[in-house]
Write a structure and sequence with these properties.
Belongs to the arsenical resistance-3 (ACR3) (TC 2.A.59) family. Pfam families: SBF. It is a multi-pass membrane protein. One of its GO terms (cellular component) is plasma membrane. This protein has a single domain (about 10-310, about 320-335), classed as Na+/H+ antiporter like fold (Up-down Bundle). The termini are close together. It has 18 helices and no strands. It is mostly helical. Helices cover about 75% and strands about 0% of the residues. The protein has helices at about 5, 10-25, 30-50, 65-90, 95-105, 110-115, 120-145, 155-185, 185-215, 220-225, 225-230, 230-255, 255-270, 270-280, 285-295, 295-310, 325, 330-335.
């Protein structure tokens, strides 16, 4: 992992503070509003263009891990997200929706990096990526409408259109870019001139989106600074409970050490950029929802870095089928920037 990736939480925080200061001191709020969603859409296209769906077949090699991951991500986590929101954020409907959007979207990018750092089975982790993406695309509107309750206050059509815009459109563009570039120019050209540049774009675009978001909503953030602190307890509970459950379940199922790492990372890491993009598209008149989502990575990334060391596969258990040997060829050369 590069130094820039290690310092991502710091850069996100600096982007937020810079945007907040600029929004309070300069009249750039109206212009910044029109930057947020385009930056996020381009960023997600860059993330998806690095995704190699050919590795989905790897999931057949670890059915126990796959089933455990799907149950934790798409059954237990939504229930926990609802319980944390209802129990700790009952009087803050926008924060509840922000928390729900964050927690019910499993990561589809940077968990690969932390899986590799901890010597997990990155081949299976990469195979889970498109599975998690498709399932969250289908289930996210269901979770928001069923678990959000009156706090959601958005109709199904609006939410479906937002998911279509934020997930399906970038995904289709990315797939077209991957296939067209490989067909007409070859895989080496695609890896060098499409996938590698895409990897370098993701983090700068995220920082631009965060800067613009806080510049646009500087007054909202200032007025609700104390409310945002209320997010820390539910996030802290989540980032303790989920990895603990993943490790315990790995022991019960007797998963190999590398698969234990993969299960822990894929069930702990969240997809905050996707959640942020959907919040901007589906709830344009409730900016606190989107602002709340920026708090997620500030706590999540240090947690993932710590977890990578706590569950790291030791040399005595390292069998050569983890990060170095099964990481997809394209991501081995140009790993996701998130």
């Amino acid at each position: 992992m590069s130094l820039v990736e290690r310092l991502q939480s710091l850069f996100v925080a600096l982007s937020a503070l810079g945007g907040l200061g600029a929004g309070l001191l300069l009249p750039i709020g109206p212009a910044a509003e029109h930057v947020v969603l385009p930056a996020l859409l381009v960023m997600l296209t860059a993330v998806f263009v690095q995704m190699d769906a050919a590795h989905v077949g790897e999931v057949r090699r670890a059915r126990t891990l796959v089933v455990a991951g799907l149950v934790l991500n798409f059954v237990l986590t939504p229930a926990l997200a609802w319980a944390l929101g209802a129990g700790l954020l009952g009087g803050e409907p926008d924060l509840r929706i922000g928390l729900l959007l964050l927690l019910v979207t499993p990561c589809t990018d940077w968990y690969l990096v932390f899986t590799a750092v901890a010597r997990g089975h990155t081949g299976i982790a990469a195979a889970l990526l498109p599975v998690n993406l498709v399932l969250q695309l289908v289930l996210l509107p269901v979770y928001v409408l069923l678990l959000g309750g009156e706090a959601a206050m958005v109709d199904a059509a609006t939410l479906a259109e937002s998911v279509l815009l934020v997930l399906v459109v970038p995904l289709v563009i990315a797939l077209v870019l991957r296939r067209a570039s490989a067909r007409f120019k070859g895989e080496e050209w695609r890896a060098r001139l499409v996938i590698a540049p895409a990897g370098t774009l993701v983090l700068p675009l995220l920082y631009v989106a965060v800067f613009a978001m806080f510049a646009w909503q500087a007054r909202t953030v200032l007025d609700h600074a104390a409310d945002l602190l209320a997010l820390l307890p539910p996030l802290a509970v989540f980032f303790v409970v989920l990895p603990s459950l993943a490790v315990a379940l790995s022991r019960i199922l007797r998963l190999p050490a590398a698969q234990k790492v993969t299960l822990t990372m894929t069930t702990t890491a969240r997809n905050s950029p996707v959640a942020l993009a959907i919040a901007v598209a589906a709830f344009p008149d409730r900016p606190l929802i989107a602002v709340a989502l920026v708090a997620g990575p500030l706590l999540e990334l240090p947690v993932l870095a710590l977890l990578a060391q706590l569950v790291r596969v030791r040399p005595s258990h390292y069998d050569g089928h983890t990060a170095s040997s099964v990481f997809p060829v394209e991501t081995q050369r140009h790993r996701p920037s998130e």
